[in-house]
Amino acid sequence: MKSFVTPELAARYESEGYLTLHTQVLPPDAFARVKALSERKFVEATKDGRTPALIDCPHWSDPALWEFIAADQMLDLVEPIIGPDIGIFACHLLRKPAGIGKRVPWHEDSFYWRGVMTPMEISSITLAIEPSISQNGCLQVIPGTHRGGYSDYNPVTGDPIFGIEIKPDMMDESKAVDVSLQPNEASIHECRIMHGSNPNTSPLVRSVLTVRYFSTSVKFTPENQPNWNKDFPIYLARGKDRAGNTYRDPMKPIGGGERAGTAV
Predict the structure, then answer these.
(1) Which residues lie below 8 Å from residue 139, measured CB to CB, with a gap of 6+?
(2) Does residue 39 sit in helix, strand or coil?
(3) Domain presence at residue 102
(4) Is 22 exposed, middle or buried (0-12, 13-18, 19+ CB in 10 A)?
(5) What is residue 63's DSSP assignment?
(6) 95 located within any domain
(7) Against a cut of 0.85, is the pTM above it?
(8) Could you give the CA distance from residue 99 to residue 201 in angstroms, rounded to a whole number?
(9) Is 2 inside a domain boundary?
(10) Which CATH number goes with the domain that contains 129?
């Protein structure tokens, strides 16, 4: 299948650290299924009275996710960026409930994954399930900041999703741009780019599926982080391994997945 990500767009990603793709990614029937699955997961997660913002790694325990996270349409988006040998590191169902969705402080993902992925070549696709726009707290990025990574952080006050944020003197928030998406559109961002999002004070729910893809030339070493789950599974989605990694069978569910919480 021909990718929507042309060489020109891949070059833009290399320069700016992100892409916004205003095209329908999944076939309509597949998109309807992933939307229904997301809604079901969040209904199940709220039975104990919580209102979670995150269902973390649902693909560990539910192979139904594999239809979407390893769909050719998704892999074709990321292949021009990371190459034909593609692994899946993680995925998340994220939701900001209408009116109460919390702010996500400025951060970059490589801060949390350093030492675990070498080299740090991870691209995240965010597929909009509901509209993800400025009014309901869409993703914001600071273009070009992926050339750094491993930022320093300060504690933050208030009631954000998590309690640390990149130090103000390390970023220029005035250069932030909204990554606005309509349902079944997608964005791609590099793991070192500075990003965050505003609270959702609107009457619109924001709901997305985010998948973390990596080149299989990246070596996965969870033992390098003392607090990391040493049994954290990774999966081969396309092509072959090039770094001596061990991959799990996506059709064999494991325990420990589908954690509902507030961290993203």
Answers:
(1) 126, 132, 178, 179, 187, 189, 195, 197
(2) helix
(3) yes
(4) exposed
(5) G
(6) yes
(7) yes
(8) 4
(9) no
(10) 2.60.120.620
Question: What is the torsional sign of CA 166, 213, 179, 175?
Answer: positive
Q: How many other β-carbons are positioned within 10 Å of the β-carbon of residue 35?
A: 18
List, for residues 122-181, the tens digit of each pLDDT value. 999 999 999 999 999 999 999 999 998 789 999 998 877 888 999 999 999 999 999 999
Residue 1 placed within a domain: no
Which residue segment(s) compose the domain that 226 sits in? 7-261
Contact 212, 89 (CB under 8 A): yes
Number of domains in the chain: 1
- How crowded is the C-beta side of 69, counted as CA atoms within 13 Å? 32
Q: Record the tokens describing residue 111, joined without a space.
A: 């801060």
Burial 141-166 (b: 16+ CB within 10 A, else e): bbeebbeebebebeeeeeebbeeebb
